[in-house]
Amino acid sequence: YDLGSTSQRWKNIYSNQFDNGNLKIEGNSITTQDSDSDLQLNAVGAGSVRVPSSNFEVTGNTTFNTTTFNDAVQVNDNVTITGALNQTGSTTTINANLTIQDGLTVNGNTQLENINIAGNRIQTTDSDSDLELDAAGTGRVVIPNADLEVGGDIVVNGSAQYANLSASGTITTN
Fold first, then answer.
1. pLDDT-derived band at 1, boundaries 50, 70, 90
2. DSSP string for 52-79
3. Is the pLDDT of residue 54 over 70?
């Protein structure tokens, strides 16, 4: 049976349920009827599918393609990003472990607890704190094929071996 026509449209339809065989609307639920079928919300042209509520909850495994979030996003499980992640706000806070599988490119300064990396300079940020380079086990801290210039005192606790040493000033040994 037809209900209205293209020239004679109904203004309002009151129903407990709508079911066209593929899509079912009942109460506050929209479901697909075909097995393993997707529910698609598509906008035409430059339009957007908008969720005006401040509470939008997604459960299960979800894929977002070309998605923009204009407000806070809280994720309570793992996030996998395939492709680029462009963060344009002033701050991103991650309150968990972050694992990066490939390279990390940082444009600007990087603050890691008490360590700041800016350009080619690594420094501590707490007042009077030491910067320690420490190898695990029997490993060594190695500076290969480079000159080492020290602008202050060198204190060696243990032994030191020098292949080529030049100094201007006093060298004291015990």
1. low
2. -SS-----SS---SS----S-----S--
3. no
User: What is the residue whose two structure tokens read 């800016």?
Assistant: 118
Radius of gyration for the alpha carbons in the chain, expressed in angstroms and rounded? 31
* For range 19-47, the mean pLDDT: 88
Contact (Cβ atoms closer than 8 angstroms) between residue 151 and residue 144: no
- Locate tokens 């020239």: which residue? 7
Beta bridge partner(s), residue 118 = 121
Nearest to 78 by CA among 101, 60, 92, 91: 60
- The secondary structure of residue 33, as a DSSP letter, is -
| In contact, 57 and 51? CB cutoff 8 Å | no
Query: For the chain, first and last CA: distance in Å?
Result: 105
Q: What's the whole-number mean pLDDT along residues 52-75?
A: 73
Closest listed residue to residue 23, CA positions, set 4, 7, 37, 42: 37
Predicted TM-score (pTM) above 0.70: no
Residue type present at position 142: V
CA dist., res. 1 & res. 58, Å (int): 38
What count of Cα atoms within 13 Å lies in the side-chain half-sphere of residue 48?
8
Q: Are 39 and 30 in contact (CB under 8 A)?
A: yes
Count how many Cα atoms sit within 13 Å of the Cα of residue 11 in the half-sphere of its side chain: 0
